[in-house]
Amino acid sequence: EMAGEEGKTETLVAFTRVLSGTIFSSNPSTPTQQSVSVLGPRHNPAKGHHDVTAPPGRLGVFLMMGDALVPVDGVPAGNLCAVTGLETVVSKCATLATTANCPALRSLSFQARPGLIRVAVEAEDGRDTGALDKGLKRLHASDPAVEISVKHGGERVISALGQLHLEHCLKELRDFARVPLRVSEPLIAIREGLCYSADDVTALSEESTGGGHHAVTSQRQ
Fold first, then answer.
1. In angstroms, what CA-CA distances link 176 with 10, 34, 142, 143?
2. pLDDT at position 110, please?
3. How many Å apart are CA 192 and CA 43, to the nearest integer?
4. By the 8 A CB rule, do 41 and 107 touch?
5. Which domains does the chain carry?
6. DSSP E strands: which ranges in the chain?
7. What biological-process terms (Gene Ontology) are attached (predicted)?
8. How many CA atoms lie within 13 A of 1 on its CB side?
């Protein structure tokens, strides 16, 4: 997130690697203008799956120099850069291309299983629920590892990879929503079932990330 001085707006910045060609900004002063399409993760024209949208406004291209973003006219292949103007059309990951006749790149995958720790969040004042939802939407777009869901009763649940990741997500959410929040204790799902085994088995393990305790038992039938 780019946080400017008072009176300036905030915008979501996409972290991008240029794999082919050159990406140009959409500023009128840029010598080369290009038409860019945003390909969703399911886009694959060879299989008849089409997920193409156009950026609603101008794209800004920046070089990341330490903690600063330096605006440039274009960035060639092989470099990392930051791109603005995609916050309404990109959810987590997307592919930018000048043609829709190519498959989208695969989304990021994580070795750690998702949802190790889950908490429910709500606004302390019910009138701020709209601001909370906007903050959750921005958090979902800015963090590829977080999972956000809404239960049937309206409960908003954040699933993180661990305790440190959860603390980071809650800090980001408070910055995005800018309303007082109420956070629950970690949620633990309890599931029961019957299994048939020839031998008695008992196992107990504890999550190192604080996710909870898991026990597995079976008895001779």
1. 10, 32, 11, 13
2. 58
3. 39
4. yes
5. 14-104 (2.40.30.10), 111-188 (3.30.70.870)
6. 14-17, 22-24, 37-39, 52-53, 60-65, 68-71, 74-76, 80-84, 95-97, 117-123, 147-150, 156-160, 181-183, 201-206, 213-218
7. cytosolic ribosome assembly
8. 18
Q: What are residue 75's DSSP bridge partners?
A: 23
Q: Alpha-carbon distance 47 to 143, whole Å?
A: 29
User: Where do the H-state alpha helices sit in 51-193?
Assistant: 129-142, 163-177
Q: Tokens 């997920």 appear where?
A: 51
Per-residue tokens: 92: 């987590």
**CA separation for the pair 123, 183 (Å, rounded):** 9
- Regions of the chain where pLDDT drops below 70: 1-10, 28-33, 108-115, 189-221
The DSSP letter of residue 154 is S
Nearest to 124 by CA among 186, 188, 178, 185: 178
Structural tokens at position 78: 């092989």
Say what the pLDDT of residue 192 is: 66
Q: What is the pLDDT of residue 209?
A: 47
pLDDT at 152: 82
208 CB-near residues (< 8 Å, 6+ apart):
none
The amino acid at 41: P
At residue 133, the 3 state secondary structure works out as: helix
Token pair in block for residue 160: 């993180």
Written as six digits, the tokens of 2 are 């780019």
> What is the model's pLDDT at position 4?
43
Phi and psi dihedrals of 181, rounded to 5? -120, 155
Residue owning tokens 């994580």:
110
Q: Amino acid identity of 46? A: A
